[in-house]
Write a structure and sequence with these properties.
about 500 residues; alpha/beta; five-stranded mixed sheet; five-stranded parallel sheet; about 30% helix; elongated
């Protein structure tokens, strides 16, 4: 048997060891044949990539499978083969879900180009970094202060030491912009088309930004006197400074967006009214209006934490005395507890009927509250609240896991009774859907709602069951992070 095989590859003659594939022989000869699926020493792929096809004596063959032989004439780069590889790559890319983007980018609900803006900051270009962020997130000055940093949870740097402080870098770029004059954003030529947005919170502002950038005429209808939604009413000033919020709103409105404040849906207009005024599309971004009730005797004596936060932000409540108890594990519950500490409460306690890890609040906010000396009583639930001469008394019970059931259930521990006495009790169970909007008009009554009383939409477009009517943010998704509702605004605009 001959020790070598003489063959021609792309017009060059080679003498190579015979017991090897064309792919291996070409590598040995210094000729690269494209391939994706072949890995030496491993089983052949069930669905081959077919990128390594070559012409052998005028016929196509897989280079990774075909053994060389004397007299072979092989072509690896004909026009037909190149066209085939392009077509095959297109087919493969159409169904490819590999990790071609950084995990931080994939984890970010807004799909922000994280590695891109970090790279620009590293190059000393924070303004360029901010422009890159605002391609998908027009409210970076809000998001950077309240985001739970989904991106950092998957940062590859944590495999070595700690995640990069991605959210703080976004805040650096945003705060750097405050030192500069307000930059005028470009707007596409006017299209002559009109869109109405119900609600001026983060979802509505985001939709307004992207629609206006496309050249459409946009009107925001806001029930309150000022825009901002929960970013204004439910986020404390130590977390969301009013100056930063005002600048973000000013940036959006500078595109030429009309605002009608003190204009409430169902009172001052209906969906049909808007369509009659020539608006071709309506985006409902009114947020969640329902409040979960504290279903225990005396539950009405507990002030709702959302109302408490609104009073704090408006300046109606400036000082607290005595002890404060917050019932629930929502984001509003933790924000209320941190406010109560700052306002001088003697002692602040949060009770939650599950484990701390099951709270709706974000872990980093809970950790901050602990540092600020907020007390936590997990697996504890209220039994009743009553008004007494010295203030409020709350009967509490410890909760235990019921082992008698096939499903995990948390039930009151038999014989457990704790008494709490203080000046303030807050209901921090959080928000919920409220479908009273269905009584606002004929079109509203035809909107399809989910079992939790949020508006049902097509996830990919946020369109409701009514043509031209879209809904997004918490009124469609339930309680979410700000970056998630900002992304909903962008998706609806698209």
């Amino acid at each position: 048997m001959s020790k070598t095989a003489t063959l021609t590859i792309n017009g060059q003659q080679f003498s190579l060891a015979p017991d090897q594939t064309i792919l291996a022989a070409a590598d040995q000869a210094g000729i690269r044949i494209p391939r994706l699926c072949h890995l030496p020493g491993h089983r052949d792929a069930d669905q081959p990539c077919l990128l390594c096809l070559v012409e052998v004596n005028g016929k196509r063959a897989r280079a990774c499978q075909t053994k060389i032989a004397d007299g072979m004439v092989i072509e690896t780069e004909t026009a037909e083969l190149i066209a085939h590889r392009k077509e095959r790559l297109t087919q493969l890319a159409a169904v490819h879900y590999g990790d071609c983007k950084a995990p931080c980018n994939l984890t970010c609900p807004g799909s922000i180009n994280v590695q891109g803006y970090i790279g620009l900051i590293a190059q000393g270009q924070p303004s360029a970094a901010l422009r890159l962020i605002k391609e998908v997130n027009p409210l970076p000055g809000i998001v950077c202060r309240v985001c739970p940093a989904f991106c950092e949870s998957r940062c590859r740097r944590s495999l070595l030491d700690d995640a990069i402080s991605i959210n703080h870098l976004k805040r650096f770029a945003s705060d750097y912009a405050i030192t500069l004059p307000l930059e005028l954003e470009s707007v596409a030529p006017a299209t002559g088309r009109k869109v109405a947005i119900i609600g001026g919170g983060p979802a509505g502002l985001s939709a307004a930004w992207f629609l206006r950038k496309q050249g459409h005429s946009v009107t925001i209808l806001e029930a309150a006197a000022e825009l901002g939604g929960l970013a204004r009413t439910a986020m404390p000033a130590f977390k969301m400074p009013k100056e930063a919020l005002a600048r973000e709103i000013e940036t959006v409105l500078s595109l030429g967006i009309e605002v009608k404040s003190n204009t409430a849906w169902g009172k001052d207009f209906t969906l049909q009214n808007l369509l009659d005024q020539g608006y071709e599309a309506v985006f409902i971004a009114a947020g969640l209006s329902g409040r979960k009730k504290l279903a225990v005797p005396g539950g009405d004596l507990a002030e709702n934490s959302m109302d408490f936060l609104a009073e704090v932000n408006s300046g109606a409540v400036k000082q607290l005395s005595g002890k404060a108890l917050i019932i629930g594990g929502s984001k509003a519950a933790i924000e209320s507890a941190r406010c109560a500490v700052r306002m001088g409460a003697e002692e602040v306690t949060v009770v939650f009927d599950r484990a701390l890890e099951e709270m709706g609040a974000y872990g980093k906010d809970v950790a901050m509250a602990k540092r600020e000396k907020v007390r936590f009583l997990p697996l504890t639930a209220p039994l009743s609240i009553r008004q007494e001469q010295g203030g409020l008394t709350v009967e509490l019970t410890k909760m235990v896991c019921c082992a008698a059931s096939d499903q995990r259930q948390i039930v009151p521990a038999e014989g457990s009774l704790l008494l709490w006495q203080g000046a303030l009790v807050l209901n921090g169970l959080g928000q919920e859907g409220d479908d009273t909007f269905r009584s606002f008009g004929e079109l509203e009554g035809r909107l399809t709602v989910n079992p939790n009383k949020t508006i049902k939409v097509i996830p990919s477009t946020l369109q409701t069951n009514l043509p031209g009517i879209y809904a997004g943010g918490e009124i469609a998704s339930g309680a979410k992070a700000v970056i998630q509702v900002v992304n909903a605004g962008r998706k609806a605009a698209e």
